[in-house]
């Protein structure tokens, strides 16, 4: 009986040790996910005295301590509705301006009087990796002003 109890204790201790060592391994992905910082910035462009001719939203993320920023979603809206095209551009520090994505036709926002163009996937951690300090802009065709934001 004493021998069986010793085996039961040994099996119980081994199982407890396995659970204890497995718990930190399961918590590691959560800790890594917590190190990702997400940002959302909105810019409004005024034109001819109007409050907001169009707006642009930039969604980006970074890992803590990294000098890279992942741009996962860019969206622009123009109100009142007017058909048009928009594109987004970027300029890394010390570099020249590049087109992120070429002209894309705007679509009407359902139940609203606005035109919208978007690129990417909101809430994701995918997309082009750009250096900290990169200037990202949205430009509508036939409008001189751009909506820009510097990635922090």
Describe the fold and architecture:
By secondary structure, the protein is an alpha+beta fold. Helix content is 22%, strand content 45%. The protein is built from 1 helix and 10 strands, in the order αββββββββββ. The strands form 2 sheets. Strands 1, 2, 3, 6, 7 and 8 form a 6-stranded antiparallel β-sheet that branches. It has a 4-stranded antiparallel β-sheet with strand order 5-4-9-10, with no helix packed on it. It is globular. 22% of the residues are buried.
Produce the secondary structure layout.
Layout (H helix, E strand, L loop, with lengths): L1 H33 L1 E10 L8 E10 L4 E11 L6 E7 L5 E9 L1 E2 L6 E6 L8 E3 L3 E6 L5 E5 L2
Antiparallel strand pairs: 1-2, 2-3, 3-7, 3-8, 4-5, 4-9, 6-7, 9-10
What string gives the helices and strands in order?
HEEEEEEEEEE
Rg, Å, rounded: 25 Å
- The tally of strands reads 10
Helix segment count?
Answer: 1
Portion of residues in beta strands equals over 45%
Largest sheet: 6 strands, antiparallel
Secondary structure: helix percent: 10-25%
**Shape, please?**
globular
Structural class: alpha+beta
Low-confidence stretches: 1-34
Distance between the termini: 68 Å
Brief summary of the model shown:
The chain has 152 residues and is α+β, with helices and mostly antiparallel strands. 22% of the residues lie in helices and 45% in strands. The chain has one helix at residues 2-34, and strands at residues 36-45, 54-63, 68-78, 85-91, 97-105, 107-108, 115-120, 129-131, 135-140, 146-150.
Features:
single chain, 152 residues, alpha+beta, six-stranded antiparallel beta sheet, four-stranded antiparallel beta sheet, 10 strands, 45% strand, globular, disordered N terminus
């Amino acid at each position: 009986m004493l021998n069986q109890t010793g085996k039961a204790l040994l099996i119980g201790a081994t199982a407890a040790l396995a659970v204890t060592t497995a718990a930190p391994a399961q918590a590691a992905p959560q800790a890594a996910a917590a190190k990702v910082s997400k940002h959302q910035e909105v810019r409004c462009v005024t034109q001819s005295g109007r409050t907001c001719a169009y707006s642009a939203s930039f969604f980006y993320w970074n890992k803590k301590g990294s000098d890279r920023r992942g741009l996962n979603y860019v969206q622009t809206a123009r109100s009142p509705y007017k058909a048009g095209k928009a594109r987004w551009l970027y300029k890394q520090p010390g570099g020249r301006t590049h087109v992120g994505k070429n002209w894309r036709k705007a679509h009407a926002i359902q139940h609203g009087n606005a035109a919208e163009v978007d690129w990417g996937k909101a809430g994701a951690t995918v997309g082009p990796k750009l250096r900290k300090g990169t200037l990202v802009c949205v430009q509508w065709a036939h409008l001189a002003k751009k909506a820009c934001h510097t990635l922090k």
